[in-house]
Specification:
7 strands, alpha+beta, three-stranded antiparallel beta sheet, 152 residues, 3 helices
Length: 152
Amino acid sequence: MKQNTNCNDLTQTEHVYALVLDDNDRALVREYSLPHRSPLNWSTFTVLLSQGADPMKAAQDELLTLGYVCTTWIYLGTYKNQQGQIVHFLFARNTRPASLPPSCNGFHWVGLRDLHYALLDGRIHELGDVASITLALYLMANQIQTAPLPVI
């Protein structure tokens, strides 16, 4: 499993994009910059998977390396893009600090209103990020009941 990086690496065949929310409905985002773009861009929690890795377990393990655990994971879907990459979408709720002290690694928490504006103004522009956020926010807005996936 590779750590959170840019998911434009076409040598990888599977990715996980997850909208991760804490108990206060704040989203975990990573800020990064691209040449010739301003302001900073944001991305959701992403994991590049090793071949044969379980997407849920990989996301849980990676989140733990940042110092967080999550009690509620919701599977949002999987698709295969035009480059042949398999992309998994997850929604993590009720995330809290683990026993380890949280590490920043470029991540910070933002409110849902800020997340929404970042979608509209282009700070969040990767298709996987947009899809995971949109699917999760749709579930929340419509109060759709889904069975949470068990934490392994």
